[in-house]
Amino acid sequence: MELLSRVEELLLLSVIELRENAYGVTLREKLNDTVGKIHALAVVYVSLDRLVARGLLDTVMTAPEPVRGGRAKRTYRITADGLKVLNEHYELQQKIWKNAPALLGISG
User: Fold this and answer.
1) Structure pTM?
2) pLDDT digits (tens, 9 = 90+) for 72-91
């Protein structure tokens, strides 16, 4: 089983949610909103590069924006392997947290 860091997990989930708008800046905004903490753009890009290198994400360059000097954007898509790892990660978390309420004294 391949383990994910919390940032990697959140980025994979954000890529799924943002679909064609999943590029560095929007992913950083989603991560910051979700966690309530400011992450440097470099942290996001290092994590994204690591996920691409591991085959969990693919990248696609968009056409340049239709304004003068418009730039192309690198967007991200989750791969089949990325979905598999994310599902395994979810199942592991469910298993780990199964007995947490009793262990933490939370009534459920």
Assistant:
1) 0.85
2) 789 999 999 999 999 999 99
